[in-house]
Design brief:
By secondary structure, this protein is α+β, with helices and mostly antiparallel strands. It has two domains: 199 residues, no CATH class; 169 residues, no CATH class. It has 17 helices and 14 strands. Strands 8-11-12-14-13 form a five-stranded antiparallel β-sheet. Helix 9 crosses helix 16 and helix 13 crosses helix 14. It is globular. The termini are far apart.
Length: 379
């Protein structure tokens, strides 16, 4: 198993053991846990389940975790609650300076990881997810059918990523996929995180099954679309109806760009990606400094919708992003994936999108567009 380390932890490669809180910790275990966490560095949060940690790292696993917290590598954002959820962490900041890749030679640890990485996530007693129980195993099993065209992917990385250590990080992701060293976890909000959800979008084009490239379908404006479905439950007037119509029949980010050309960048794709990120920040965290200009943009264009969003948590009791993410997940997993899986067809999920084999294109597209039409015509 090849791994990398943030430069701050490179000393671990020269020291087989370290002492922390009067406990002697194996450096291999710390390195392995760091690489596990790095797989989720682009996600907002991930779980460290005590059952899995104890099996992999022995009863001293809490000290390993505390060490990484002490070193400011990860931060706990939610505690364990019996029967409800595992401890939830986030990587503290995006590490960009890494040591060169090296081989982790603790074969005992590697064998335990390989043997149990699929089994554990399904047997966890406190697994909390809205994804239907009968769908969890096929969601995981399908991951192991996927390979990546390493030659083309590496060529893209060499030409598309300039920083050598960042390139190395992506090389290791490719190696992990082809060696079936898959990562996966279910979160509390209905999402399923995998080795592919945090793979750069440009590299997903090289994913394949049986040597054949996978196709994909995605919800172009997922969060605004599901916000429109929420608004249908309210007797909104004026801009509610206008927002719903634009969201369901156009690309709302391109609509906003066309009306606000000051946000145009070098390419239309870059402009759309940038305004999408900022508009979502405005919807989910309007107090954030970077959201301020986009708060005005939304308020000018859809004042009643913006007022609704601003007061959503106060009246509904939870953050808007949690509601939208739950609606999205229910659609992708419990509706789309379920229908595809019921037909014994291959499919993997990447949050608001799916990937599938070309031979199943006609059937899967029919399911996809039919369910989107049902969603838009609801209420």
């Amino acid at each position: 198993m090849h791994v990398i380390l943030p430069i701050e932890f490179s000393f671990l490669t020269q020291n087989p053991k370290i002492v922390f809180k009067k406990k002697t910790l194996k450096s291999d275990y710390i390195i392995h846990l760091i690489n596990y966490c790095l797989n989720y560095k682009d996600d907002d949060e991930f779980s460290l389940n005590s059952t899995m940690m104890r099996h992999l790292y022995s009863k001293d696993y809490p000290v390993l975790v505390k060490y990484l917290v002490f070193k400011n590598f990860i931060r706990k954002i939610r505690n364990h609650k019996a029967g409800a959820n595992s401890r939830i962490y986030t990587v503290c900041f995006p590490f960009t300076n890494f040591t060169d890749a090296f081989q982790l030679c603790n074969h005992f640890l590697q064998d335990k990881w390989k043997k149990h990485q699929k089994r554990f996530i399904l047997s966890l007693p406190d697994l909390k997810t809205s994804i239907l129980p009968e769908l969890r195993k096929p969601l995981i099993d399908n991951l192991y059918q996927v390979d990546i065209d390493a030659v083309k992917a590496i060529k893209w990385i060499k030409s598309g990523i300039t920083q050598s250590q960042t390139r190395e990080f992506h090389f290791l992701k490719i190696e992990a996929i082809n060696s079936k060293d898959m990562h996966n976890s279910f979160d509390d909000h209905g999402r399923f995180h995998t080795s592919f959800t945090n793979l750069r979008k440009e590299l997903r084009q090289f994913l394949q099954v049986d040597g054949k490239k996978l196709l994909d379908l995605d919800i172009k404006t997922s969060q605004p679309l599901f916000l429109a479905q929420i608004l249908k439950n309210y007797n909104g007037l004026g801009t509610y109806d206008r927002f719903i119509d634009i969201t369901e029949n156009q690309d709302i980010y391109l609509f906003l760009l066309n009306k606000n050309p000051q946000y145009l960048k070098s390419t239309l794709k870059d402009s759309r990606d940038a305004i999408k990120k900022d508009i979502l920040t405005s919807l989910f965290d309007p107090q954030k400094t970077t959201a301020i200009p986009y708060n005005k943009l939304l308020n000018d264009e859809f004042p009643e919708v913006y007022t609704f969003v601003k007061h959503y948590k106060k009246y509904e009791g939870e953050f808007l992003w949690k509601t939208l993410q739950s609606l999205e997940s229910n659609f992708i997993y419990n509706i789309i994936f379920k229908k595809i899986n019921d037909l014994n067809l291959f499919c993997i999920t990447i949050h608001d999108s799916i990937m599938f084999q070309e031979k199943d294109k006609k059937v899967i597209e029919e399911i996809w567009y039919q369910e989107l039409k049902i969603l838009k015509n609801s209420l």
